[in-house]
Amino acid sequence: MAGAGVAWLQAAWPEVLAAQQHAQHTMQAVAAGAPAKLEYLTPSQAADIDALSALIIPSTDTPGAREAGAVYFIDRVLRTSRPDEQKQFAGTLAALDRKRTEMFPATASFVSLSAAQQTEFLKSIENTPEFAALRFLTVCGFLGNPEDGANRDMVGWRLIGFDHAPTHTPPFGYYDAEYLAEKAAGRKGEKP
Amino acid sequence: MTARGPQVARKFSPGEEVDFAIVGSGAAGGVLARELSVAGFRVVVLEQGPHLHEQDFQHNEYRTLFRGALTNDWTLQPTTFRASEQDKATAKPALLYGRVVGGGTVHFTANYWRFHEIDFIERSKRGAVAGADLVDWPITYADLEPYYTKVEWEIGVSGQAGASPFDPPRSKPYPLPPLPIKSTGAIFEKAALKLGWHPFPAPIAILSRNYRDRAGCVHCGYCEFFGCEMGAKSSTLATVIPEAMRTGRCEIRSESYVNEIRTNAAGRATGVAYFDKQKRENFQKAKAVIVCANGAETPRLLLLSKSAQFPDGLANSSGLVGRHLMFNGGASAFATFEHPLNEYKSQVVTRVVHDFYELDPKLGFCGGGGLDMRFDQMPILFALNSLPPGAPEWGAEFKNQVAQNFTRTAYVFCHSTSMPVPANSISLDPDVKDAWGLPGARVTYKDHPDDLKTSQYLLDRAKELLDASPAIRKWSEPPREQQFGIHLLGTCRMGNEPNTSVINSDHRAHDVPNLFLCDGSSFVTSGRGQPTMTIQALAFRAADRITRLAKRGELGSMALPSRS
């Protein structure tokens, strides 16, 4: 049934398919390792954000926010944001700097803290709007679309089992497959 | 676009008096535009939002959900909220609605339950409810049945007639078979049958097969909250609006924000004032005005249209414009499962139960509802909001929980009644202004005690269902008083008496003979939580009634071919 829908679509709506293919190509180009560069954040801001995002979604035996290039996504979001949003984010970074120097006087940046200090700092801010903003952007950078600079090589989607195919066909998951198999077996059993 | 034909770009100049100016292009406005232009009238539809098309809709969660592409933007149109009329309202997001051509039908889930007989006569059957102004509709299910059928066949609804023993009578089967079952549907059906309930395939306004000139669903999964790039979701954008445009008598004027309905000395509407994309003020002349702007924006526009002649707002001699706001109740019971459900694939809901549509009066409260099971969150929203309780918000265990649970989480969703409480309302905020300088919508809302009891009752059933399923981990929160509305109902209620209602059963304002209101605001009761089907049935019926009045000459000399 879905197959018939796709065939019809190919005949009637080539431009929709072309647009989808274009999106796929863009994603593949990004996935192929097109060099990422910063266009908005300063190198020191980016280093701090990268370290913070790597604590929120760490690199373990599987890739984390750092491998997904979350900081490059955040850089792009900020570059394309409205001035009031940019100002708000600058305020977020300033507040984080202030809190860090209160907690660890005479430190110059978040990356310069020891691993233990970084964790201690994050624990101390986890109920603040600044943390919520960073967590939001990090999650978007890990699980967003590669064409936006997020989720490089689709590492986030691979980790959670999300198949970003343009179409799917039933059965979709374990329990509907099981249900359909039982129905089929039941029908067979009813035969004389 | 070959199969669907070109859309004729008919343009009217604002100074040219058209037959109908329709405010809003959503569930009702789209239907009325099509029906009236097909009947031969000249129609201009004014829509706040942009006219997007299938090729504009993306498989992109961040852009669609978090950059406000399809819905109202609270930074431009702030809303305020208070729980009671004694409180001062504070600025916060309190309403969500579609703000594109097609309105909420572009991003909705497309659950298309008909109302049952009880929804129209609950007052007669159940008696008065203290603290609510529960009354019967001036029309019955039987009056609306032909129009429910018309919706199903005109826009394309998938379902299985007769599958629910609780269904009201119908004159025709669905035009399309149900969509394929998902894991939540399979789990839900098996558990419901164990409990002796009556699960049935969900009626959904999404094409399960090719229908007329549109392609069937390809199960991409970017469905609720997203626009359908295949046109398989039966939004007004994909169905009636192109048909209206093809008549050559209908202009869809997007990015046009109506701020006033003007009237003449005789008390008749003369047209609508609106801001165009550049925020320039314009005036569209029309012989009649139909407002289909949703249950929040319709009363707001009437209240904004006050004049010396109508000092309390237009069509508000009853004082009821904006009152009896109803959101529907919505409680959820979550669970995780051992195996992947992959609910991110395909459209959202595949099985429903209506065993609790009418609750036993002996329970001591009035209401009822329906249950379904689903998981409607894409990766980002899931990771931010839907981990099991106690999961950390960051670190290796956060990452682990996101990875383990994304494909394995689902919830039973309880949809239920809201009682019409007079104090629950949309009014103009005295302080907060929108980006056009107009007073923002102030929401006053406190769930009626019966609504919370109904929600709790249904939530207990949802938990029973999960107990009868293979769920591993289960959690829920007790129903809380709502402070945010998506279903916007009841604010310009229909009725026979001008002192107790805003419009009559023809959707005609009691106070203004050439002004009609048709959308969720027309509702007298809330139904059980899936209002769009009824909004569209009302719109098809309203089109018939309005056409009859126009042919009788009650709306001035209109451009009907039969009259020229």
- Major sheet size, sense and barrel closure of chain B: 7 strands, mixed
Structural class of chain B: alpha/beta
- Report the C-alpha radius of gyration of chain A, rounded: 23 Å
Task: Give me the strand/helix succession of chain B.
Answer: EHEHEEHHHEHEEEEHEEEHHEEEHEEH
Low confidence ranges of chain A:
1-33
What's the Cα radius of gyration of chain B? 23 Å
Shape of chain B: globular
First-last Cα distance of chain B = 34 Å
**Largest sheet of chain A, described in full?**
none
Secondary structure category of chain A: mainly alpha
Helix content of chain B: 10-25%
Mean pLDDT of chain B: 96
Overall average pLDDT of chain A? 85
Description:
The complex is a heterodimer of chains A (192) and B (564). With 192 residues, chain A is mainly α. Chain A has a domain at 41-160. Chain A has helices spanning 2-12, 14-31, 43-56, 65-68, 70-79, 83-103, 115-125, 129-143, 155-160, 174-190. Chain A is elongated and about 80 Å long. In chain B, 59% of the residues are buried. The longest helix of chain B is centred in the C-terminal third of the chain and has 20 residues, at 532-551. In chain B, strands 1, 2, 6, 7, 8, 9 and 17 form a 7-stranded mixed β-sheet that branches. In chain B, strands 5-11-12-13-10-16 form a 6-stranded antiparallel β-sheet. A 4-stranded mixed β-sheet of chain B has the order 4-3-15-14, with helices on one face. Helix content of chain B is 23%, strand content 17%. The mean pLDDT of chain B is 96. Chain B is globular, with a radius of gyration of 23 Å. Chain B folds into 2 domains: 11-62 and 90-106 and 113-156 and 235-326 and 489-564, FAD/NAD(P)-binding domain (3-Layer(bba) Sandwich), CATH 3.50.50; 175-224 and 329-416 and 446-481, Cholesterol Oxidase, domain 2, CATH 3.30.410. Chain B is an alpha/beta fold. In chain B, strand 1, helix 1 (27-38) and strand 2 form a beta-alpha-beta unit. Chain B contains 11 helices and 17 strands. The chains are: A mainly alpha (192), B alpha/beta (564). At the A-B interface, helix 1, helix 2, helix 8, helix 9 and helix 10 of A face helix 2, helix 5, helix 8 and helix 9 of B.
